[in-house]
Amino acid sequence: MSAVIDANRPDLGGNIRHGDSNTFAPKLWRYLIERFAIRSMLDVGCGEGHAVHFFHKQGVYAHGIDGLASNVQRAVVPITLHDLLAGPYIMPVDLAWSCEVAEHIAPSKVHHYLDTLANGRIVAMTHAVPGQDGHNHVNCQPSEYWVEALRTRGFSLERSQEYYRQIAARDDVPNYFQMTGLVFVRL
Fold first, then answer.
1. In 10 A of CB 1, how many CB atoms?
2. Which of 69, 78, 135, 164 is the most buried (most CB within 10 A)?
3. Taking Cα atoms as reference points, which of 171, 36, 34, 8 lies closest to residue 99?
């Protein structure tokens, strides 16, 4: 498996062609759908749209955005081309999901990413930690950074973070959420 990248825009891509099993957390996703009565979702940095497809099959109105044109062209479901460095994407939803995207957004543009996440009344995200290797990791931060950034946008970190990570860990393949996953609720 190889990472999908754009030689002209190193900030784009990094996802695995045909989907990265480490970005899938179906047991967690089903729990979030039921726990928060999720009827609509936005996948921020959706790659080829595999999570969007999963949510759609669960009866959720699901939409995804990605900045890499080849991902949009090869997507398993229709998704939208959107460059988060140019501005936020506006689409109010019940759930904003973002897996392994935060660390790819330069600090000078991270407000666009955060404003996009703020579309959700629930935000579920993962992030790379300081020193974590990866393609174009330009904004690796501790969880506290993301907690504070979303707090300033009117979100509170759910108290049950460890429980959410335990649910994610029940899937057959290890996933990023079980390591750095965060769930927020709009106040």
1. 8
2. 164
3. 171
CATH number of the domain where residue 180 is located = 3.40.50.150
Read off the pLDDT of residues 75-108 as tens digits, 9 standing for 90 and up: 999 999 999 999 999 999 999 999 999 999 999 9
DSSP 8-state code for residue 29:
H
128 contact partners, CB below 8 Å, separation of at least 6: 100, 102, 103, 134, 137, 140, 180
Number of domains forming the structure of the chain = 1
Find out whether 117 and 98 touch, Cβ atoms under 8 Å: yes
Measured CA to CA, the distance from residue 42 to residue 45 in angstroms comes to 9
Position 119: which residue type?
A: N
